[in-house]
Amino acid sequence: MAPPDPATYLALRAAAEVYASGIDRRDTPRFLSAFHRDARLRIHHPSAASEPSSVRIGHQELAEVTAVIQRYAQTSHFLGQSTFDVDGDEAAGETYCLASHLSPGPHGGDTFVMHIRYDEHLRRGADGVWRFFDRGVLIDWTDRQLAVTVGSF
C-alpha cells in the first residue's frame, strides 16, 4: 500500500463527499452511488465493544439509512481530514467527520453531534469511480447542544 497521487486522493475523497451530501439531502440514489451494490456499512457506537451495533449490507439495506435519518429535521456532515493507502484498485483510509443532527424545539431545538471517524475500504469500479465496499462509522463520542435558529431569539 502507498499514499495516493493527488488525482486519486480527490477521487477517493469524493466518495465521502457524495455519502455526506446524500445523507444531508435525503437523496437515496446519491447516497447509494457512493457504494458498490454488495457493500457493507458498519455502525460502532462509543459504548460498544469492537463489534458493530448495526450492519447494513447491499443497496436494499443501505437505502434505509436515508429514511432513518429523516427523524431529524436537518443534518449536516462536516468532513475533516482524510488519509488513504492505495493498492491497485483497492484503497483503505480514514475520514473524520462532525455530524450534527437537529431536533426542533420551541427556541430552535437540540443538536446531537457525533464525532466520527470513518474506517473506509474502497474499490475502483470498471467505470473508474471509487466506491465503498466496506465502511465503518466509528462514533468516538457524542454531545448535545442547544440549537438556536435565526429569528428565534
Task: Characterise the protein shown here.
- With 153 residues, the chain is of the alpha+beta class.
- The protein is built from 4 helices and 6 strands, in the order H-H-E-E-H-H-E-E-E-E.
- It has one domain: Nuclear Transport Factor 2, Chain: A.
- It has a 6-stranded mixed beta sheet.
- It is globular and about 50 Å long.
Keywords:
six-stranded mixed sheet, Nuclear Transport Factor 2, Chain: A, alpha+beta, 153 residues, 4 helices
Give the gist of this structure.
With 153 residues, the protein is an alpha+beta fold. The chain has helices spanning 6-25, 28-32, 58-62, 64-68, and strands spanning 35-44, 54-57, 74-87, 90-103, 110-124, 130-146.
Alpha-carbon distance between the two ends: 53 Å
SS summary, helix count: 4
- Class per helix and strand makeup: alpha+beta
Q: Kindly identify the CATH topology.
A: Nuclear Transport Factor 2, Chain: A
Largest sheet: 6 strands, mixed
How many β-strand runs? Answer: 6
Please give the structural blueprint.
Elements: H1 6-25, H2 28-32, E1 35-44, E2 54-57, H3 58-62, H4 64-68, E3 74-87, E4 90-103, E5 110-124, E6 130-146
